[in-house]
Amino acid sequence: MYKLYDFLPSGNCYKIRLLLNQLGIDYERVNVDILNKESRTPEFLKINPNGRTPVLYHDGKYLAESNAILGYLASDTHFLPKGKYEQALVLQWMFFEQYSHEPNIATPRYWVSILKAEEEYREQLTAKMKLGYAALDVMEQHLAINTYFVANQYSVADIALYAYTHVAEEGKFDLSGYSSIQAWFKRVESQENHIDIKKS
To answer: How far apart, in whole angstroms, are the C-alpha atoms of residue 140 and residue 159?
Structure first.
């Protein structure tokens, strides 16, 4: 049995729910309200000393970090390409997502739409959005000549990048000029057993 420690609005948590659903894996969802510091309790810190969601429990073990969980679940499935080089490309895009993309796309959304604190973070938002648009430009350039991110097949690289990109406008990003990203959204959303980010 799988158990997912999850904060529903989080794109990092959504990645895991989406893949579990697309793999047809039943799981127990445990809500962790990070706004009420539930990820900082002594009980949760025993599960993940880093105090963050998501955390997956399976086979008597806990695993944190969204993209590590994606890799674990995707192993030996069609969500991970077979070739060694292609698997390395998946990791390349997942590292890009966590280093260049997520900190600059997800954080403005968190400040604006979840904390409702746009004015408080206005100065930081300016810097984050500049870097966020740079990450979107990298994605747009790649998707202009590729159907998906790796080997022209839907994979966990797409799930990792879709999670926060498709809600970037909630952080005041304007995606209207990113036609290749918009077309990719439709391809991702047409995949079997796709679910909305708001669905638990």
So the answer is: 16
In the prediction, which pLDDT does 23 show? 98
pTM > 0.85: yes
111, 117, 122, 125: CA torsion to nearest 10: 0
Torsion from C-alpha of 173, 20, 146, 100, nearest 10 degrees: 40
DSSP three-state, residue 30: strand
**Cα separation of 16 and 76, whole Å?**
16
Residue 150 has phi, psi (to 5 degrees) of -135, 130
Report the b/e string of 83-95 with b at 16+ CB within 10 A: eeeebebbeebbe
Q: Does residue 199 carry a pLDDT above 90?
A: no
C-alpha distances out from residue 112 to 29, 35, 103, 120, Å = 26, 14, 14, 10
Check if the beta carbon of residue 178 is closer than 8 Å to that of residue 140.
yes
Q: What is the dihedral of CA 38, 5, 101, 108, to 10 degrees?
A: -40
**Cβ-based neighbours of 2, under 8 Å, separated by 6 or more:** 20, 25, 26, 27, 28, 56, 57, 58
Residue with tokens 């695993």: 63
CA distance 17 to 193: 11
For the stretch 136-162, pLDDT in tens is 999 999 999 999 999 999 999 999 999
CB 13, CB 6: distance < 8 Å: yes
